[in-house]
Design a protein that fits this description.
The chain is α/β, with parallel strands linked by helices. The chain has two domains: 31 residues, no CATH class; 168 residues, 3-Layer(aba) Sandwich (Alpha/beta knot), CATH 3.40.1280. 34% of the residues lie in helices and 26% in strands. Strands 4, 5, 6, 7, 8, 9 and 10 form a seven-stranded parallel sheet that branches. A three-stranded antiparallel sheet has the order 1-2-3, with no helix packed on it. Helix 1 runs parallel beside helix 3 and helix 5 packs parallel to helix 7. It is elongated. Bound molecules: S-adenosylmethionine (SAM). S-adenosylmethionine binds next to helix 7.
């Protein structure tokens, strides 16, 4: 009231009960303002998609974070994989604030009502032990029979009306090691393909997000 010198008749977007409303001030009494909620402003929630993104070249990683935000992703967990370049792995923790700023700017640009969350970088093993209720899919270029589209479509059909959280993991430029593949297997992650061609990490991340968005929206 004080900062904006609020007066009856002024219009604002107001968050009420977890929804955004275009509103007009109906009256001001003492310290309280009464709003008339005119119309709900459509604010799409994030898609329930978490990307485990192996740390890779920072300029491309920023690009991937920006695009994943535009496509509606909920969260990115930067992962230190066995074949992540050493100097990038060491510098990753110091980059997180910048990645968060990239996500914030991209969220605003995409007119999101929320901001994609970027976690602190984690070693792969620690990152895998998260959300056990989630559909867990590991992008693997060696996988030939099951596509991401098919596996995710099936998982969503099986889950009925309630959309489950979806976790997808993208490997580093050198790919996953056999030990990491075994680790995914032990944690019940399903290997999935994005087709017969080898994609760069950022292409794989954005394609995976786009496939998920197409199935979820
Ligand atoms: N080691 C590979 C090579 O040079 O033969 C390349 C790894 S690729 C650049 C990096 C990551 O992108 C992979 O670990 C995987 O997660 C993902 N990826 C790339 N192409 C893919 C595909 N066709 N299907 C599924 N995942 C893919």
């Amino acid at each position: 009231m004080r900062v904006l010198r609020a007066q009856p008749g002024m219009e604002f977007d107001v968050v009420a009960g977890g929804r955004v409303w275009h509103s007009v001030i109906a009256g001001i009494t003492g310290d309280s303002v009464r709003f008339n909620l005119i119309a709900e402003v459509k604010a799409d929630p994030a898609l329930p998609v978490t990307l485990l993104l192996s740390v890779f070249k920072f300029d491309r990683m920023e690009w991937a974070i920006e695009k994943a935000t535009e496509l509606g992703g909920d969260r990115i967990v930067p992962v230190i994989a066995r074949r992540s370049e050493k100097h990038l792995a060491q510098a990753a923790a110091g980059r997180v604030e910048r990645w968060r700023r990239v996500a914030l700017e991209a969220s605003k640009q995409a007119r999101r009502s929320d901001v994609l969350q970027v976690d602190d970088p984690l070693p792969l093993k620690a990152a895998l032990s998260g959300e056990i209720q989630a559909v867990r899919l590991v992008l693997a270029e060696q996988e030939r029979s099951t596509t991401l589209h098919h596996a995710l479509g099936e998982a969503l059909a099986a889950s009925g009306d309630e959309t489950p959280p979806i976790w997808m993991a993208v490997g580093p430029e050198g790919g996953w090691t056999p030990e990491e593949e075994a680790m995914f297997d032990a944690e019940s992650w399903k290997p999935v393909s994005l087709g017969p061609r080898i994609l760069r990490v950022e292409t794989a991340a954005i394609t995976a997000m786009a496939v998920a968005a197409a199935l979820l929206e």
